[in-house]
Amino acid sequence: xxxxxxxxxxxxxxxxxxxxxxxxxxxxxxxxxxxxxxxxxxxxxxxxxxxxxxxxxxxxxxxxxxxxxxxxxxxxxxxxxxxxxxxxxxxxxxxxxxxxxxxxxxxxxxxxxxxxxxxxxxxxxxxxxxxxxxxxxxxxxxxxxxxxxxxxxxxxxxxxxxxxxxxxxxxxxxxxxxxxxxxxxxxxxxxxxxxxxxxxxxxxxxxxxxxxxxxxxxxxxxxxxxxxxxxxxxxxxxxxxxxxxxxxxxxxxxxxxxxxxxxxxxxxxxxxxxxxxxxxxxxxxxxxxxxxxxxxxxxxxxxxxxxxxxxxxxxxxxxxxxxxxxxxxxxxxxxxxxxxxxxxxxxxxxxxxxxxxxxxxxxxxxxxxxxxxxxxxxxxxxxxxxxxxxxxxxxxxxxxxxxxxxxxxxxxxxxxxxxxxxxxxxx
Length: 427
Ligand SMILES: *Cc1c(COP(=O)(O)O)cnc(C)c1O
Prior knowledge:
It is a single chain. By secondary structure, the chain is α/β, with parallel strands linked by helices. Helix content is 36%, strand content 14%. The strands form four sheets. It has a seven-stranded mixed sheet, with helices on both faces. A hairpin with a 2-residue loop joins strand 1 and strand 2. Helix 1 (7-16) packs antiparallel against helix 14, helix 5 runs parallel beside helix 6 and helix 12 (323-348) packs parallel to helix 14. The two termini are 27 Å apart. The mean pLDDT is 97. It binds pyridoxal-5'-phosphate (PLP).
């Protein structure tokens, strides 16, 4: 695509954008009377205007019915979570029975590790990415310790090579092959939260299975962002949160994927509660856990309906649009952001002076989603503060990284152009 750094070009792109009307379905934060350039959909997605009505429906039904709402509410609470199976399965490329919405992300990661990380004396290692999101690091560390092993020995971190920013795919595969029979589990973020690099989940899953390990992904930065085919890729398990690209509100409910072959295995060890018990006999309140033959078997508690209502509002929008259109626009939009940053480097900065912007996210669109991460060489937090002051909401990581994620549902090409103008005037 031949991009141009001009307002006419950006507006033309917006005019041709088949998703342009969706921006109007979201509340865009306003600073100093002006809509912000909101590039943190990878951190907390914006609120759909429909969310309040979805939550209100449940509040009204609670007021009207009390406990009877479990069966008589417009969306009965007893089966509230079931509404998500179909639309979420489409977003992550799964069978409806392979997904369930429950709890929060790190809680789910730990629950899934209980089933899929079963260390033995010979097979106890985990391959993960170096500098994984801290919550994931802590979870893995304690899973290993609870199994009686030493994290320094048991956790194999794959890091970028000297002088490189992102992981080489062959290095991930090599780490898996080298661990061989000692490898119990591969647990990687499908999209690295810092660099925005997308990993080849299909090949990683194949490599893990070849040495007899289970393979799972944390898709916090993948769900609603990139193409996922979890069932087809044969992934064992995955989990994600709903408040980033899925716009379901702060601390919103998480989702999990468990491959059909494991759903059918009722002998699999797991933590359990009444909501994972066979639906038909749940209210007989009898002894003896009988897990459902679906991802629902991992549910322990009854559904948090109020946060799930916010999730439903957002998921309904995804279901209406479909991932295909989102992916199509996402590639062009993040490509435009790259182009604008390159253009500023070329015309307004000078690498030899030490002041320049290094895009660390892979250029190849197969290896990235919405997010573009930049190291601002020669700049400090001042630059970021200036951007924020002028209405750009992005994310700063010490010492000099800026993460930005224009998203196809509510960001426009004009957002990206205007961001470029603000950046240009502050470097
Ligand atoms: C955002 C994020 C989390 C956050 O975990 P919560 O349990 O939702 O607080 C964890 N892991 C990754 C990879 C993330 O990106």
